[in-house]
Design a protein that fits this description.
Structural class: alpha+beta
Strand order of the largest sheet: 2-3-1-4
Strand content: 25-35%
Helix content: 25-40%
């Protein structure tokens, strides 16, 4: 399982619209993500900074599948304009320890 963290900035005037969108993510979007191997997805908000944490079997394969997926494109076309800097910027993991396995 691969974990990825990405960041973006929310347009302050779109805060409530973005929150409402994520209270009502369409089931077809969630089903499509699951079909393509995404296992977990969380979005965190601090001020106008967004943090996205996803876990997938293979993020490269997921990205390739989503690149031309009409269900994801519709969702992204809806939420992308609410972000100040366009789309998610992927972060580089510099440290990870699984404490359950460190005994």
């Amino acid at each position: 399982m691969e974990r990825r963290v990405s960041v973006a900035r929310l347009k302050p005037e779109c805060r409530e619209q973005y929150l409402e969108a994520h209270r009502n993510v369409p089931e077809r979007v969630l089903a499509r993500y699951s079909e393509l191997g995404m296992r977990n997805c969380s979005v965190f908000l601090l001020g106008v900074d967004l943090v996205l944490v996803t876990e997938a079997e293979n993020h490269a394969a997921l990205d390739a599948a989503l690149a031309n997926d009409p269900v994801d494109r519709e969702w992204q076309d809806f939420v992308r304009p609410m972000k100040a800097d366009g789309d998610w910027q992927h972060m580089t993991e510099i440290y990870h320890v699984n404490l359950r396995d460190s005994k």
